[in-house]
Design brief:
The complex is a heterodimer of chains A (about 300) and B (about 525). Chain A is mainly alpha-helical and about 300 residues long. Chain A has helices at about 1-10, 10-15, 20-40, 50-65, 70-90, 95-115, 140-155, 160-170, 170-175, 180-205, 215, 220-230, 240-255, 260-275, and strands at about 130, 210. In chain B, about 40% of the residues lie in helices and about 25% in strands. In chain B, α3 crosses α5 (about 115-135), α3 (about 95-100) runs parallel beside α6 and α16 (about 395-410) runs antiparallel to α18. The chains are: A mainly alpha (about 300), B alpha/beta (about 525). The interface of A and B includes residues 159 and 165 of A.
Chain lengths: ~300, ~525
């Protein structure tokens, strides 16, 4: 609880001692928004960590080897991720649901285990170290988050967004309305790749270090990002960001739990999913949903006779 | 000609779902397309709208060739459609559903979205206004606009789907069973809507399985059976065509009646209701093995069965007849414990079917042979039968039982080692019945045993049913092929939109003029 007390009692001190945490929330928020885009168009894609890796390695390698300016590095990284996203999307987006999820996991693991850990220029298992954070800290990350959020929010309100909604609800019916389903799925997938790679590039610079571990660019990260969306709710742009904030803060919220932190945090997540299946930000204000099997609400079966 | 189909073909494996169909739809007309269950109507629609690839043949919409185009392009060219089992965007509001229908006509505003907001608001406002007026066109009040599509009553969902299709500003509107599951007054509303849309200049292709609605509104009607067009003409020509009557009623049908069932319109059902009021109904048996009282079953907002009561005595064959969507299969599924009733009672030999588990119901001797047969296509005939006895512990007697059943259906005995999927439709139906017999039923529920079968196979299946009955099994039969069902039934109930309209002995109903016209053909 010390964490929250200091937030109110000493905001300036809190800010100074937790800039890294705030930045991480911002970056997770951007990744969560990239997840939102694919889910909004009805695609259970877990490819985000792969695109983050592309963003991180491309931008940091350019900086280390060519000393090119930061903006150019990030721009190139994002562009590359977009191209890779398109190429990966061509075969993979024919799949739906769990099959798409597994195929995208295949993509991120192939990238991490097959490319990153095997190509000398990436530093293989040791990762990459670089010296300076050219970002000037938190502001650029938070501004990026706001810009991405705004853009995605506006897109969901236009023609593109209405096509995505239609596809998410019923692909067959969307076709009957003249919607080119394959194209709009691809647009969402590539946009989400751009956003995820941007977040990856920012994160690499924030951390002074690019770590090829599973928790960074592997399945563990993919599941974490999916958790952002499930917890926060994927019906509104803000949902996954709220989820990302909460998940990032979990260790602080349950600070007192010590070694049991993971058990407590897990129980909390399960509780949210049971009582708020639509996520924290979703239909029905903040009402708590009582599951049908909850004992007190059970309606007695119609009596015979 | 607005739509022209030339020798379209689509086969699934050995099934000729669409087998060389040519059809022309005149601009400004309402063209009907009918045929019994499984005739290939929906497959034809899917082929025309690009959902299923054309194998051979060509299709045009005016001068635009549709052959080989993907579904979204065909929609964009101006073919709007609805779906047999409503496919709305369920969580979106009614207005949002209609707005999505405007996708093709709407200019791409992706960049404008990021910048100028007022421009967008103006356009959006115009679109929303148009969406509301489309809702009004199909007879939905403005107040419905903000409601999520899946919270609307069933009839309104059908109307909303039509409004969404209209938002495309289609040249041709294809309605796939728009009146399925509706009661007579809702059907009348649908009919009026279709006529109104047509009066405004829209060309409509109307698909339905029975003739009642189609005959009322269409100037021309085409009839499909087994993927082939068997007739094409005015409603009068088609309904008196012996081939059509045969397709609907089976062999011999054309000798007994002069027009296909339901050929003279919606009002007939009212006549049946009047006849019901005056007739005394069938004598219900005193001692019943199955006793159903005031049974009501619903699926969400749709009430499929409304307060149905009937009894079946041991040794009888009882038939439930009525059009598609009347609630017949729902009644059977409720009796065998697959669906739970909302209210009412059902007892079989002292067992409370409303609450008993499905497995307990089977053990008591009530066995259902489901519609569509549901056999395991990749297993052999013998394996299908063995799997049905999988839960039984008494190995040797099971063996004997299988041998007995195979003896009853010699054709299955011959094919015991062939995969079930390679059997003909009739043989598959025999297998499904044989599987049901393994459970030693005292009451056998048969759901549409003649579905999709060629006439001579229907004869064979019905002969088998009569034999099983003679050997002492009570039978409750659901059939669309009412003529055949009534011919073997001791008693029958006529079901319309979830209620029993009329009951009587098979003979009585067979000769009741109102029933004949509404359900059997006059």
């Amino acid at each position: 609880m010390d964490f929250f007390i200091s937030l109110f009692s000493d905001p300036i001190g809190f800010w100074n001692s937790h800039t890294l945490l705030v930045s991480q929330i911002g970056i997770n928020g951007i990744v969560a928004t990239s997840m939102f885009l694919v889910l909004y168009s009805g695609q259970l894609s877990l490819a985000a960590p792969g695109f983050m890796a592309i963003g991180a390695y491309t931008s940091v390698l350019m900086e280390l080897n060519w000393k090119t300016p930061f903006v150019l590095n990030v721009g190139a990284a994002v562009l590359l991720a977009g191209v890779v996203g398109f190429l990966v999307g061509l075969p993979v987006l024919r799949l739906r649901g769990v099959f798409l999820a597994i195929a995208t996991i295949g993509f991120i693991e192939a990238l991490r285990l097959g490319v990153i850990l095997n190509v000398p220029v990436t530093g293989e298992g040791l990762g990459l170290k670089h010296d300076a954070d050219p970002l000037g800290g938190v502001p650029i990350i938070l501004v990026s988050l706001l810009v991405v959020l705004f853009a995605v929010w506006r897109l969901t309100k236009g023609r593109l967004g209405s096509a995505w909604s239609a596809i998410r609800q019923d692909e067959v019916a969307a076709l009957s309305q003249g919607i080119f389903v394959a194209r709009y799925k691809m647009i969402a997938f590539v946009l989400s790749a751009l956003i995820a790679s941007y977040a990856g590039a920012l994160e690499a610079h924030l951390n002074f270090f690019v770590d090829p571990g599973d928790s960074q660019y592997g399945v563990t990260r993919a599941v974490q990002i999916l958790t952002f969306a499930v917890l926060g709710g994927s019906g509104y742009v803000l949902g996954p960001v709220v989820g990302a904030t909460l998940v990032t803060l979990l260790p602080y919220i349950f600070e007192g739990a010590g070694d049991y932190i993971n058990i407590i945090a897990g129980a909390f997540l399960i509780a949210v999913i049971i009582f708020r299946p639509q996520g924290i930000v979703g239909r029905g204000g903040l009402a708590i949903v009582r599951p049908a099997w909850w004992p007190r609400t059970r309606v007695s079966a119609p009596s015979p006779g | 000609m607005l739509l022209r189909l030339d020798d379209l073909r689509r086969h699934f494996g050995g099934v000729h779902a669409v087998d060389g169909v040519s059809l022309e739809v005149e601009k400004g007309s309402i063209q009907g397309l009918i045929g019994p269950n499984g005739a290939g109507k929906t497959t034809l629609v899917n082929v025309v709208t690009g959902y299923t690839r054309i194998q051979s043949g060509r299709a045009w919409l005016e001068s635009d060739e549709l052959t080989g185009l993907p579904a979204h392009r065909i929609a964009g060219l101006g073919i709007g459609r609805t779906f047999q089992n409503i496919r709305l965007f369920k969580d979106l509001t009614a207005v949002e559903n209609v707005l999505i229908g405007m996708h093709v006509r709407r200019r791409d505003d992706t960049l404008a979205q990021l910048g100028t907001l007022p421009f967008f608001r103006r356009e959006e406002k115009k679109r929303v206004e148009e969406a509301y007026s489309l809702l009004e066109t199909v007879g939905l009040p403005r107040s419905v606009g903000e409601r999520a599509a899946d919270t609307l009553p069933y009839g309104d969902q059908r109307r909303l789907e039509i409004a969404r299709a209209l938002a495309l500003k289609p040249r041709l509107l294809i309605l796939d069973e728009p009146a399925a599951g509706m009661n007579p007054s809702e059907k009348q509303g649908t009919r009026e809507l279709i006529e109104r849309l047509n009066a405004d200049g829209l060309t409509i292709l109307l698909i339905d399985h029975d003739m009642r609605l189609v005959m009322g509104v269409c100037r021309r009607v085409a009839v499909l059976n087994f993927g082939k067009k068997i007739a094409d003409g005015t409603p009068e020509e088609v309904s008196t065509d012996p081939t059509v009557i045969k397709a609907y009623l089976g062999t011999g049908g054309e000798r007994e009646v002069h027009s296909a069932p339901g050929a003279t319109g919606v009002d007939e059902v009212r006549e049946v209701e009047e006849a019901a009021a005056s007739s005394r109904g069938a004598k219900e048996p005193e001692k019943a093995i199955l006793d159903v009282g005031d049974l009501t079953v619903s699926y969400g907002a749709i009430v499929a069965v409304r307060g149905v009561s009937f009894r079946v005595a041991a040794g009888e064959i009882v038939a439930l007849i009525g059009a598609n969507g009347a609630g017949k299969s729902t009644i059977l599924n409720t009796l065998s414990g697959l669906i739970r009733p909302q209210s009412g009672t059902a007892t079989f030999d002292g067992l409370d079917l409303a609450n008993a588990r499905a497995s307990a119901i089977v053990r008591r001797g009530l066995v259902q042979v489901p519609e569509g047969r549901e056999i395991l296509a990749r297993q052999t005939v013998l394996e299908n039968l063995e799997l049905a006895t999988w839960a039984r512990r008494d190995g040797p007697s099971v063996r004997m039982r299988i041998d007995e059943v195979l003896k009853r259906f010699p054709i299955l005995g011959e094919r015991r080692d062939l995969s079930a999927g390679s059997l003909s439709g009739g043989e598959q139906q025999m297998l499904a019945i044989a599987r049901g017999l393994l459970a030693r039923p005292r009451l056998l529920l048969l759901d549409e045993p003649s579905l999709g079968l060629a006439p001579q196979m229907v004869d064979e299946v019905f002969r088998a049913i009569e034999e099983i009955h003679r050997e002492g099994t009570t039978i409750l039969l659901v059939e669309q092929n009412a003529l055949r069902a009534l011919a073997i039934a001791n008693r029958a109930y006529v079901i319309e939109t979830g209620r029993i309209l009329l009951s009587g002995s098979g003979d009585d109903l067979l000769h009741n003029p109102a029933v004949r016209r509404a359900y059997l053909g006059g």
